[in-house]
Write a structure and sequence with these properties.
298 residues; alpha+beta; Pseudouridine synthase; Archaeosine Trna-guanine Transglycosylase, Chain: A, domain 4; 3 domains; 9-stranded mixed β-sheet; 5-stranded mixed β-sheet; 7 helices
Length: 298
């Protein structure tokens, strides 16, 4: 029996504008099929309710997914006041109600409390693991997962508008691990009116923003035109926040074989090594020794 064809070696990033109702897994499958890529993955899950920036890595770019996920993320979202739901968004079951509604100045005055390094309990319907199981699997089975508060960072949080007494539109810039749904829940409780996320759009992940985003319609149009590869960003597009380290050809070969090289003291931490303008490896430098962590085969 002939072996199934695995797809072609595509390397790079597509900044996908995920539409409403599509899971992140479905989005990756769509993009991978369109490119006929051998390997693909995403940097940061978006719920079906959410739209917006979903960076999709193909080929060697999948080795930089963790670096992309470590970047700051920006969101624009609408909170619906008066109801708390078990999923903390509009898809869940109502578990609490309130007739109170906050004024715009009350909302704005409360935001400083949720800015900076704060503790947040993840939503019950989240991918956080509890005793080896995903919290959302436990919640869907009727169990109530007990989740510990985690330290997160919210860099900016501002009120955009209150279109009516039942809704408020906010924008947020945050670090890894922060849940917009958790913020809506906690802000609703703090204001005494309860709340959940009604609409959510991610507008940035690291250096990937809406100006780079490719819609599903454009993806399909470019596929029919045979011009998909022109949409790809290079592997190193996700590494803009990591210092680059230029190495010689012989040093690059050592890194590719998993061997350490030495550099002058003074630089410490994570870098990405390059030679001839191409990334060679993500590496860690300590006491002048560069050790490869993930090697790019480009």
């Amino acid at each position: 029996m002939a072996r199934k064809r695995r797809g072609r070696p595509v390397h790079g990033w597509l900044v996908f504008d995920k539409p409403l109702g599509m899971t992140s897994t479905q989005a990756v499958a769509k993009v991978r099929h369109a490119f006929d890529a051998a390997k693909a993955g995403h940097a940061g899950t978006l719920d079906p309710l959410a739209t917006g920036i979903l960076p999709i890595a193909m080929g060697e770019a999948t080795k930089a997914v963790s670096a992309a996920m470590d970047g700051a993320k920006a969101y624009r979202f609408t909170i619906r006041w008066g109801e708390e739901r078990d999923t903390d968004d509009a898809e869940g079951r109502v578990i609490g109600q309130s007739g109170d509604r906050p004024a715009a100045d009350q909302i704005a005055a409360s935001l400083a409390r949720f800015t900076g390094e704060i503790e947040q309990v993840p939503p019950s319907f989240s991918a956080v693991k509890v005793a080896g199981a995903r919290a959302y699997d436990l919640a869907r089975a009727g169990a109530q997962p007990i989740l510990a508060a985690r330290l997160i960072r919210i860099d900016e949080l501002r009120l955009v508008e209150c279109p009516d007494p039942d809704h408020a539109v906010l924008e947020m810039i945050c670090g890894k691990g922060a849940y917009v749904r958790g913020l809506a829940r906690d802000l609703g409780r703090h204001l005494g009116c309860l709340g959940h996320v009604g609409e959510l759009r991610r507008t940035r992940v690291g250096h990937f923003d809406e100006a780079m985003a490719i819609s599903l319609d454009k993806l399909e149009d470019m596929r029919h035109k045979g011009a998909l590869d022109g949409l790809l960003l290079p592997v190193e597009a996700a590494l803009a926040d990591i210092p680059a380290l230029a190495v010689t050809g012989s040093e690059a070969e050592r890194l590719r074989f998993g061997q350490a090289i030495r550099v002058p003291h003074g630089v410490e931490g994570t870098v990405y090594a390059t030679t001839g303008g191409k990334p060679v490896a993500l590496a860690e430098i300590h006491a002048g020794e560069v050790r490869p962590v993930r090697v790019f085969n480009l």
